[in-house]
What we know:
It is built from 22 helices and 19 strands. With 635 residues, it is α/β, with parallel strands linked by helices. Among the domains are: 121-170, no CATH class; 229-295, no CATH class; 417-634, no CATH class.
Amino acid sequence: MQIRKAHFTNFRCLSDVEVSFDRVTTLIGPNGVGKSTVLHGLNWFFNGPSVEKISADDCTRGNTAEPISVTVEFSNMTKTDRDHIGLTLMDNQTELKLRRERRSDGQERMFFESSILPQFALIRRAGPAMEKRNAYKKLREENPSWNLPSANSAVEVENAMRAFELANPGKLAPAEIEVRMDIFGFDGSAPMSGVFDYVLVAADMRASDEVVDRKTSVIGRIVERAVDRTAADQELQAIAEAMHEQQDEVFAKHFTGQFEKLSTELTNAVQEYVDDRSVVVRRLQQPSIGAPKVQFEVDVADSELHTSVSRQGHGLQRTLLIAALQLLARHGSGGPSGTICLAIEEPELYQHPVQAKAFGRVLRSLAEDPDQRFEIMYATHSPHFISAANFSEVRRLTRRVRTGDDLGPTVEVRSTTLSKLKTALEGVVKESVIESQMGSVAMHRLPDALFASGVILVEGTTDRAVIEGVSERGGQKSVFVSGIVVAEVSSKGNLPLPRAILHELGIPVFTVFDGDHGVAHRMIKVGRSDQDIENAAAAECAMNRKLLTLLGAAAEDWPKSQVFETFAVLEDTLETFLEGAWPEWREQADMIAGSGLGDPRKNELLYLDASKYAAGEPPELLLDILERTRDMMKK
């Protein structure tokens, strides 16, 4: 059993957002778009206000007139799941939908979507058992052909109705049925406890606070479920009772006679003044000695040295916390068939890159092992938690400004699949290339671009260096400050696939490519054959036409240098363009190379410095590329 889909309404920034889930789901996107809100919304849905407190302040833009609602759809439900849940489910039902809502008065309710006979709805909504029985009896009398059995209790009424529904699926209609609020939980009494348990590792959860042996801490909850104290408690209580008996024996032996003598002496002394009173000296009632509770502590052992968790590095503390929560979920599970959903906010927190990669692979192995029954979800800013082989698991959240109303931005969730990319690139990139390169292109060419607010897609590293350098000149706004990533793909022919991936994920992408009009001249200079020159020119023309068509422009063999709304093309190459439009750039590059500070050949560091420090003004075309990209990000 796993989460297939969740729908959030009126919850913080998620006014009306639906998110689909896989066995492993990675939520990415800029800051403030709602990645963590998804995880916390699910935490409230599963674990309630005692764990995830919400209030009227959590309504989207203060809309307290509408309820906060989270709906979760489950899939892959087995017979064991159905039997354990106990809800009125069809025999072959594999999907389940539940909805939790919080109304403006603070009341929370949970609903279960089922197929029921409409005539039974009034009976189910009836209050006391007597009302249910009377309503059922009336319906039974009005419909004798249904052959409904008699029922003497509310339970028998429900069983009779459900048996009829199971036998007559064609008469049923979808409806919501209210269910008990504690349907989830770790205590084993809730219907879905052990069938599906949700554990959130929040970014601000402190490991040192959670390893203290108290009931509310993670380690305390683990100890309560994993450690059987019964036998020890009985033995300790026996010791306490024996000690109490021994205390009585010692008192009787040493104090009884002395207290009696002292009582007589005091009585005699008092009766010299008051003859109708006596004095008794006796032992005060001793407080009962209860069995001491065994306290636990968690230390970290490094060879022979034991140190407290608070003295460990942040990375190890974070790892310990996640491992402890994983263990807690396992011990809270009601049986071997239950699923544990481990949701981690910023799993890369305090992890160095190698450890983060290992962390991601271990968690993925848990999710992919059918015997473990784990579902994993992340809200992350790290590519280490994205799998190249499973890129379709990525969900990117973005904010879009809505025009024509004053309701503010809305959150969108985007993802991509092989089929979507094949459709987008039909006739441009071979399907076999898309199948073999989708994941690797995303991970190796776009690791930072996936997390950007906008992307400028270029052919090579020197193109990237020039654009980044121009953006960092005085009076300009750096691409890094703007949330823009300049991503290189190594050649013009590689542009379509990464562009399509970014576009499908909803990331604004501006494409820059060379027209390579001077390819023949360059090949003549190095002595290439006429046939080679002809073939190269034909290939460049074909690629230019293909890219222009893909980008929505008129196809032509040799386009002139020009900036369009979503792309720019250079007539030949960036170097030839700069030499003509910004001669000071070439002078600065030659000066840097002549000083021994850079390789005079294509060198991204040299190009970066030359673009940052060259005299004169950068060409308008380069500034326009930056401005157009920022404009795309505002839409």
